[in-house]
């Protein structure tokens, strides 16, 4: 057991216990399962029914899990929470499920019927609650290329929402804003309105960064003057992600050398990865320290290319949803900023057939990459600690004794079973 310095009487003789993840994964065929669950009573092979959460004599609430992901390792045993904090991990007892940090999504254009670019504060609050029910505890609202006044008003509404709630909105927390554009390549605009794209301009950049808490900026490094923008962003503490780009390998390498630390939705809206022309995608995969962000919705990227990314960029892959307003709704017509998007058979496209964001959920992407054979802890890091570190958040993406009792309980396939906020399980069916 590992606790916060106070040990209940019944556990007084228990020593702190950490288990490295491979101890469990090797025995159980690379599955995150604690030994008592898998073996059952007296080694009979019959699973032992999980214990429900219970109140300990010290006033702690036990979550009734079999293990917890702590500091990148799997710690076997239960988790206890008290007064909104995690007070112990590795407690003895039989349980089921894996306690893990909440998901962090760094590219959310909209969700549950709400488009970020035009959303009023009440709609943003509703969207945050929908994200929370799907396991996303923190996110970065993303504004695609649009008219400058519209971007300014959207950023102000996001700031007003955060200020009005004091960071306690009852939904997913906002971790700043992702400006995806307007300094993008007209050769690789994706769904961005080409007429709204702008050539790199330092004065315009400074104006955009003054709109609010801009945390991430996506730009194309091959554009004339783009490297100066990378330097200016880094000077102001803004993460630069390269994307929507026709860059060759030399342009991409120059962007990373100037200070860019991520790539936006790898493979999509960039030059294809070829044997003698690796482009932005290949350069990102080959460059240490670059966070490789990938959409794993079954539409944007082939399964083999997802596996390639996780193998080539070990410890650097991060999933994003790239969700639009149709996420969680189904087939419909919605807007992505100024663009009309039609969703049919779960695929979002503009009228000309161009993919226009995703209707997938980050939680489903997690399950998908696990089924593709991505190691469980690697998959979990890709939706928790890595995206949190990318945007400089120490509050989210980790589960630790003394930290907030905001977490998920997952099954062996990494599907969400429970969402716990402030030590209390939330109703996943309550809008």
Structure report:
- It contains twelve helices and 25 strands.
- It starts with a strand and ends in a 6-residue tail after the last strand.
- The longest helix has 18 residues, at 148-165.
- It is globular and about 65 Å long.
- With 431 residues, it is α/β, with parallel strands linked by helices.
- The chain has two domains: 2-101 and 398-425, Urease, subunit C, domain 1, CATH 2.30.40; 103-390, Metal-dependent hydrolases (TIM Barrel), CATH 3.20.20.140.
- α3 packs across α4 (148-165) and α5 packs parallel to α6 (226-235).
- Helices cover 26% and strands 24% of the residues.
- A hairpin with a 2-residue loop joins β24 (416-421) and β25 (424-425).
Return the CATH architecture of the largest domain. Answer: Alpha-Beta Barrel
Distance between the termini: 36 Å
Per DSSP, the total helix count is 12
Count the domains.
2
* CATH domain fold name of the largest domain: TIM Barrel
The CATH class name of the largest domain reads Alpha Beta
Q: Over all CA atoms, what is the radius of gyration?
A: 22 Å
Uncertain residue ranges? 4-29, 33-54
Fraction of residues in β-strands: 15-25%
What is the structural class?
Answer: alpha/beta
Q: Shape from CA axes?
A: globular
Give helix % range.
25-40%
Number of strands: 25
Please summarize the sheet with the most strands: 9 strands, parallel
Mean pLDDT: 88
CATH superfamily of the largest domain: Metal-dependent hydrolases
């Amino acid at each position: 057991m590992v606790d916060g310095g106070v040990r209940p009487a019944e556990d007084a003789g228990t020593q702190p216990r950490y288990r490295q993840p491979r101890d469990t994964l090797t025995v159980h065929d690379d599955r995150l399962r604690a030994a008592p669950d898998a073996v059952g009573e007296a080694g009979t092979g019959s699973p032992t029914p999980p214990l429900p959460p219970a109140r300990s004599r010290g006033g702690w609430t036990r979550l009734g899990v079999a293990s917890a992901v702590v500091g990148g390792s799997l710690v076997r045993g239960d988790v206890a929470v008290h007064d909104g904090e995690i007070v112990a991990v590795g407690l003895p007892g039989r349980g089921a499920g894996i306690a893990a940090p909440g998901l962090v999504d760094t590219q959310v254009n909209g969700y549950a019927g709400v488009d970020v670019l035009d959303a009023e504060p009440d709609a943003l609050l509703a969207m945050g609650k929908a994200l929370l029910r799907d396991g996303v505890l923190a996110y970065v609202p993303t504004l695609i290329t649009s008219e400058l006044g519209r971007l300014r008003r959207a950023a102000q509404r996001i700031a007003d929402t955060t200020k009005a709630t004091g960071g306690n909105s009852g939904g997913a927390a906002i971790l700043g804003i992702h400006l995806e554009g307007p300094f993008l390549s007209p050769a690789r605009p994706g769904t961005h309105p080409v007429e709204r794209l702008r050539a790199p301009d330092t004065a315009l950049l400074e104006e955009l960064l003054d709109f609010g808490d801009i945390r991430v900026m996506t730009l194309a490094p091959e554009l004339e003057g783009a490297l100066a923008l990378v330097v200016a962003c880094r000077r102001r503490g803004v993460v630069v992600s390269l994307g929507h780009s026709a860059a060759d390998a030399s342009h991409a390498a120059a962007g990373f050398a100037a200070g860019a630390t991520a790539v936006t939705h790898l493979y999509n809206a960039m030059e294809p990865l070829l044997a003698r022309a690796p482009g932005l995608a290949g350069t990102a995969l080959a460059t240490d320290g670059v966070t490789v962000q990938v959409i794993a919705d079954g539409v944007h990227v082939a399964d083999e290319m997802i596996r390639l990314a996780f193998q080539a960029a070990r410890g650097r892959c991060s999933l994003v949803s790239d969700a639009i307003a149709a996420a969680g709704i189904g087939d419909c017509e919605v807007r992505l900023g100024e663009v009309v998007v039609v969703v049919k058979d779960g695929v979002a496209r503009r009228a000309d057939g161009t993919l226009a964001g995703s209707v997938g959920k980050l939680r489903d992407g997690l399950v998908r990459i696990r089924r593709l054979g991505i190691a469980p802890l690697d998959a979990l890091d890709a939706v928790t600690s890595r995206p949190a570190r990318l945007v400089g958040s120490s509050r989210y993406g980790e589960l630790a004794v003394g930290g907030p009792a905001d977490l998920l309980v997952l099954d062996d396939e990494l599907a969400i079973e429970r969402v716990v906020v402030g030590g209390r399980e939330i109703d996943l069916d309550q809008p």
